[in-house]
Structure formats: structure tokens, C-alpha cells
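YM 10:42: Aminopeptidase N sequence, as discussed on the call
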Amino acid sequence: MDLSSTEQSPKMTLLANYQVPRYLVDEALLHFDLDKAKTRVISTLKMRLNPASEAGDCVFDGDSLDLISVKLNGKSLADSEYKVDSKSLIIPNVPEQFELEIITEIHPDQNTALEGLYHSGRLLCTQCEAEGFRRITYYPDRPDVMTVFTVTIVADAKQWPVMLSNGNLEEQGQFNDGRHWVRWHDPHPKPSYLFALVAGDLYCQQDHFTTMSGREVTLRIYVDPENKHKCDHALVSLKQSMKWDEEVYGREYDLDVFMIVAVNDFNMGAMENKGLNIFNAACVLATPETATDDDFYTIQSIVAHEYFHNWSGNRVTCRDWFQLSLKEGFTVMRDQSFSADLNSAAVQRIDDVNGLRSMQFAEDAGPMAHPVRPNSYIEISNFYTVTIYEKGAEVVRMIKTLVGDKGFRKGTDLYFDRHDGQAVTTDDFVKAIEDANSIDLSQFKRWYEQAGTPELTVNTQYDPVQQRFSLTLRQSCPATPGQETKLDFHIPVAVGLLDSDGNNMPMQLAQEKTAYDGDTRVLSLTETEQTFEFIHVSEEPVASVLRGFSAPVKLKYDLTNTQLAFLMAHDTDSFNRWDAGQQLMINVLLQIVDDIQKQNTLALSPLLLSQLEAVLNDEQLDPALIAKMLTLPTENYLAAQMPVADVDAIHQAREFAKRQIAVSLKPLFNARYESLSKQKKYQFNAEDMAARSLKNLCLSYLAATADPLQMQRCLRQMKVTDNMTELLAGLRLMVDQAGSEREHALRAFYEQWKHDRQVVDKWLSVQAVSKLPDTLLRVKALMKHEAFNIKNPNNVRALIGQFCRNNPVHFHAKDGSGYRFLAEQILKLDKLNPQVAARMLGALNSWRRYDIERQELMKASLEEIAAQKDLSADVYEIVTKYLAAQ
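YM 10:58: structure's back
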């Protein structure tokens, strides 16, 4: 029977209300009769009462399902023997052990939310994390119900020749009516969010990997036939990942086959379904002609991330969604370490921290701030955030810093051995590290419980008579929604001391008998304020604090520009060397902003110029690090450094500084560019990638000189290059220059690549971030272009997302046109794909940081969204929190 539902605000889910599942599913036999218009699912569940619970109603989650029938132990249930509504199926009075058969019908081609089973091009595929399995069949759709799945798929052999699911292929066959069938069995118990199914007309590229115990694993990548030449890099990355995980963590793969499928319509980057990873096509397909260095790098990282989940997420999974960072934070830290080992460790750390500071610090300072382990949520999809992933990774990294590499390996070995096949919590992870290392991390666990970015204040004092150097560290953390006061964190602070020649000095604390033997030592800050006193310090040092970014904090260290320039030139820690340069740039740029506001004459600091010149002239320095050190902070990051962000002044200041640097150092940029322009065949390796990054940075500075000849240089680079990295670098610079050459370059690029969806997204993106004043009009026009489909998340992210997040001077236009545009798109998207709509709202996360006029305009757009009837829970949760922000 149907239960009538009443309109109400979406329900809040609380960690404090967690209860163990009442009934467990020991085995799930799923039978799919596939069709894109109507798929029939027969689910046979072997269930029993959870020994840790008491008998009661048996409740199954369901969403957008047509229920056909229910059988309990072979007996068909009448309508009066169960209850069904839009979100659940409830069966009272079940025995302690029973078999249940549920038949449902679903409609993949109507599923624009891209959750559950949906249609994408020539594919039918699934996405079940976090709560998508309930769109396939009624089931206790929660991560702590671990089940052994056997899946039978039946479909038309011509339309769906390839049919895949988790685990190992057991049987397959043909029917006489043109249909065929396969049966897949996964011997490892898993939660429903890791279920996967794919069917379609796909090309398969195959390889093999021999594990450390001598087992041979078949590796397969499935793609649309036109993309069959784009699989090599992903396969290489997969084998590198498998080898690295064996060597570093001792983790071996456990099935006979590992499969990856590339899908064009996908809400996320990729999904780690057991043995059958489903990837956004943009995160797996690559050739030098169609993918940039960043794409190759990202694919390598994401392939590793999803593979590493086989242990940190699949074999050991999370008990509930509040523990999401248990798998995601840990696995991000693992994939970052993998990328650092294979490429430039310094550049990897800089990129990781740049992303954290730009996005996660803003999230921590905004209305959506939440702990790494949240206490509540309305829509779990909204908590796939940079806090869960990137800050979660930093928390795990700090644990590793505290116990050391060997101690961390002992701890993770214990964690995997102790909890294999279980659904556990962040407390279980920390307990394994504690037990393996005889360490107490009770205070440290506040990193999981408290939101906000701690602020670390540094003060120093030197006594030349006693030759003592005092380093005083003080911590604080601002209030966040629901957490007004914070307890002291346990913060590992990596420190080095440099003498006047830039050499590392000995570091012996007053209470120690011998000096510390190393360039960097980690101090544990556990109180509100602590002073660390170093003895036998022969001259006043410059302290290099938070080396390697040893904790995700905001550093308040009042160094002069001269001291920052010294660290930029001499610090032996590559990250801190870069960071000192960034802080020097920020100081100079904010001074220019102040001069613009006061209508003073603008000038660029000679000190900064001389330091940049020295970096550019340093032949011993890694070109990739040079490129990072010469890159100005983004306008968004500069805005975050101001009490009230002045969008227009920041844009003007940054453009002025870049032009002055470009003009002053033009001969050097020109010489470097020419020296790096020798033609050689594209290869993806750290050395060549570093050279291309510096070459393209030099070209961007040369273009900033406003010399018309530099546009010809951009065009020449686009014509002669053999790779998308250099081609796109030239096009990005062209789109900032009004005129016929720009339009010709854009038309020619599209005509050459319109058949390639991933490259077309790049074409959309470069136009979305153009500095020209008509950019919003162009974005609106592109939404009507044949290349754009609002139902495709990649198109939306490439055009709408790039404009709203990475073009601040036009998104934050004084007339509010950017905000109105975003509101219109969110309301459209919310009807199609609530997850994507909610993520687009992130562009308004920091709306309270702008001037009153812009705040009022942003508020009006938020109120327009909030006033819409039937908002999804995804958008409702975010917009109401934004409007409640003070």
C-alpha cells in the first residue's frame, strides 16, 4: 500500500543517533534484465537479525523505484503485509533468518541525476556512492551492511555486447532470442555503495600484472571505440600504482581481474567499486595531442587513488558516512605520496598546499565549515568536500609525521590486519596507530572533531650573550558554525634554523644533552602557548617554520620582506622557499591594492624583482620549482587575505605587477623561452614536464608585455607543437586579446577538435576565464552552442563552473550579473542533477567577505534560489546555511 507523504524540510542525520543495522544481508543475488528504457531487477537477499540488535520492522531504502512484487521465504506478500512510500519499504514481523525476493523496475534513460543505474551514450552504468544503490532496488543502503554479491545480467547481445560487474566472471552464455547473459561473483563482502554494473558496446585494452606473491592479474580498460588510442597512460599508471602499494604498504591485489571503464557522463572524477572502477572519461583518457601535462598528472593520481581504495576503503570500509574521511583522507594522502615519489616531491607538496589554502581554508572560514568527521548532515553528497578529502589527508599526514615512516607502516599494517572485511571508524584507525607505536593520540583526535583552520602565531627572541634562541608558538582557532570555542590542537611544527649564509644550524633544546642531528625537527605544540628554547646558537638565526607545511594551519609569522627574500633565496626546504616567495608577493600585491584604493602612484618592489630575477637565473634549480616560484598568487587567494575583498583593485594590482615583472625581466624570459623551445617528441616525465611548465610561464609573462609580436609567438607555438600542453597554453593567452586573431584561433581549435569531448571542454574553459569584458555574454552564447549540454557535468564544470569560480573580476561584476547568472543555472540544474547544482553553489561560499553592495546582490541571488519550491535536499542544505551565515 502507498503512504501519503507531506511536504517538509529535509531531515537532518546526526552522528549521535547512529544505531547498528537491525538486519544483516549475508548474500545478495541480483538479476538484471537490462534495457535503457525499462530495466527489471530481481533481488534475492539472504538476511538475518543482527546479534547486536533487537527484532523489529525490516526497513529498506528505495528511491524512484517501481515495486513489482515482494516474496518472503517464497511466499508472495499482499499489499497489506508491507508498507512502501517514496523513500522506503517496510516489512514487519520478519523471522530472525529469512530469504527475501524483491522485484523492481527502473528507467535508466530518465535518470539525469546520474545516481543508481543510468544511460550515458552507448553505455548503461551505475554510480552508487553514497546512496545510489537505493535507486536500483530496495536495500539497507548503508556502508555497515557488508554483503557477498552475485550478479547476473541479461541483455540484447548486439546493443550491450559487454556486461560487467564486481569480482570475477563465473559463467556466461547465449539465448536463442539474440540475448546473452553473464554472471559475476565478488567473494569479498562489500557495502552496496561499492556495487557496480556496466553494459555497452565498448573497446577493451588488456594488460597483466604479476603480484608480489606471483599471482597474475588481468588488467582491462573499457572505452568507447573512438577512444581506443587513449588507454596507454592509464594502464601504465595502474601498474605503477599496484607496484607502489606493494612496496610501500605491502598491499597486494586480491581478485583475478581489475577493470576500469571510462564514462562521459559522471558526477565525480572516478569511483572505486570493487574490481570495477568507473571513471569520468576526462580522468582516464589521454594522448599527448589531446591531454595536457596536468591531465596526464591528474590521471596518474586518480588511477592510483581509486586503486589504493581497494584496501583503504574497500577491504576496510567506513561504518557510516560521518567517517567518510576514514577512506578518503587516508587514500588522498596515499595518492599524494605516490605522485611525489614518481614525480617532483617539492612541486607535489606545493600543489597540494595551494589547493588546500585556496579551497579548504575558504570552506573552513565559511558557512559550510565542518569537522573532518562531521556531526550532522542533510544530504551526504554535500560532504564530499575538500575538508573531508584534502584536510583529511593532512590529518593523516600529521599522524605519519608524529610516528615516523616506520611507525606509520606498523600502524597501517595493524589497521588492515585488524579490520579486514569490517566497516570501522576514524577512532579505529587512530587506535591502530596508537597500539602499534605505544603513543597517545587522544588530544590529536580533535583534528577530526573540530572545524576551522587553526592560526599559529610565531614570536622569536635571541640572547647573544647566552647564545639562546627562543621560539614561542601560540595557537588559536576561530569560531565556526556550531562550534564557538575550540580546545587546543596537537600541532606538529617542523622547524629549521638558518645562519646568515643560509646554512642550517644545529638545534639543541635547553633540556637536551646533545644537539639534534638533522636539518629539520618537529616540535609538538599541545598547549595554547609554548616556548621552545634552543642553546649554543652562535648567531641570531632566521627560523624556517612549518617546513613542508607540517600542519594545515594559517601561519602568522611577522617576517619582514627582507627576511622573506632571504628565505626565498636560501631555505633548504623547497616548500618553505616557495612559500616565502609567495608571502613576499602577497605583501607586495596587497600594498599595490592599498595604493590603488588611495589613488597613489603605483610601483613594484625592487626587492621582489631582484629575487625573481635571481630565481630565473638559477640554472641549478628545478625548472618546475622555478615556474612555481614565479607564479603570482591567484586573485581568489589574494581576496582571502583581505578583511573585505576588493575585487577590482586586486585584479588591477595583479595585472600591474605581472606587467611590470614581464617588462623588467623580458630579456630573461625571452632567453629562457628560446632555450626551452628546442623541438623534441612529447614524453610524460618529470624533466620534460618541468621544462614545459617553465616555458609556458615565460610565454605568459612575455604576453603580458603587451608587445604585439608576442601574440605571433603564441600562434607559432600553437602551430608547431606536437602536444596539447603547449597548444592550450598559447590559446589561453590568445583569448585575453580582443580581435580577429583570437576569433580565428578559437574557430580553428574547435574545428580541429570538435569530435573530442575532453578537448572541447578545454575549449569551453579557456573562454570562460577570459579577462575580456564580454566574457559573460560569451559564456551565455556558448551554452547554446552544439558543444554544450547542461545535462553533462563535465560541460557544466568546464563552462559555468570555471566562470563562476575562476574568473572573479567578471563573476563579481558590480551589477550582479554574474550572481544572477549563477542562480539561474543552479535552478535549472537542480531539476536535472542536484549534486552538480549544489557544487556550483560553492562559488558563493565566501559571500560575506565582499563589500556591502556585492553582499546584497549575492544575498538576493541566494534568496531567489531558496524561494524556489521543491528544492533538492542538496541545494536546500547549502543555500540555507549560506543565508544563515553571519
